[in-house]
């Protein structure tokens, strides 16, 4: 089984990803990938205003995606859990997938070893 997120990426093209500028600096996120949204916060730039597709996302939603700054990714990305990965639902995951025409994950998506 490959991790369902690797063939999804919907949440990286569904929500704004804000953070305090100090977090961006501490994580070493390239300033060119963020934009200022208020005096204290920046957000990941988007390259598709309609779907809020994060500029750091590579690949095709629902097929094969990857975050180019995975190790440095900000806290909102770390906090968003995939539905049922740890036995819990995730309304954000479900909503993001629905926005891209993908069905919600189910516990069965995590049942195969791998
Ligand atoms: S920083 Fe990476 S994990 Fe976060 S929204 Fe952008 S592509 Fe997705
Ligand atoms: S929407 Fe859910 S399954 Fe898709 S990448 Fe995000 S957490 Fe993973």
Explain what you see.
The protein is α+β, with helices and mostly antiparallel strands and 114 residues long. It has helices spanning 21-27, 75-79, 91-99; strands spanning 18-20, 34-36, 41-44, 46-48, 53-54, 57-60, 64-67. The strands form three sheets. Strands 1-3-2 form a three-stranded antiparallel β-sheet. The chain has a two-stranded antiparallel sheet with strand order 4-5. The radius of gyration is 14 Å and the shape is globular. The mean pLDDT is 95. Bound molecules: iron/sulfur cluster (SF4) (2 copies). Residues 12, 17, 44, 54, 56-57, 67, 69, 73, 77 line the site of one iron/sulfur cluster (SF4).
List the helices and strands and how they pair.
Layout lengths: L17 E3 H7 L6 E3 L4 E4 L1 E3 L4 E2 L2 E4 L3 E4 L7 H5 L11 H9 L15
Antiparallel strand pairs: 1-3, 2-3, 4-5, 6-7
Bound molecules: iron/sulfur cluster (2 copies).
The site of one iron/sulfur cluster has 10 residues, from loops.
DSSP strand content: 15-25%
Q: How much helix, percentage-wise, in residues?
A: 10-25%
| Biggest pleated sheet | 3 strands, antiparallel
By DSSP (H or I, 4+ residues per run), the number of helices equals 3
Distance between the termini: 5 Å
């Amino acid at each position: 089984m490959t991790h369902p997120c690797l063939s999804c990426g919907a949440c990286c093209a569904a929500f704004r990803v804000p953070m305090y500028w100090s977090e961006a600096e501490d994580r070493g996120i390239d300033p060119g990938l963020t934009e200022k949204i208020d005096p204290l916060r920046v957000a990941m730039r988007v390259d598709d205003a309609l779907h809020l597709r994060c500029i750091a996302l590579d690949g095709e939603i629902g097929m094969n995606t990857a975050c180019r700054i995975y190790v440095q990714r900000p806290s909102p990305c770390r906090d968003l859990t995939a539905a049922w990965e740890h036995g819990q639902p995730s309304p954000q995951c479900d909503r993001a997938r629905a926005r891209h025409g993908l069905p919600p994950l189910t516990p069965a998506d995590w049942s195969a070893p791998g």
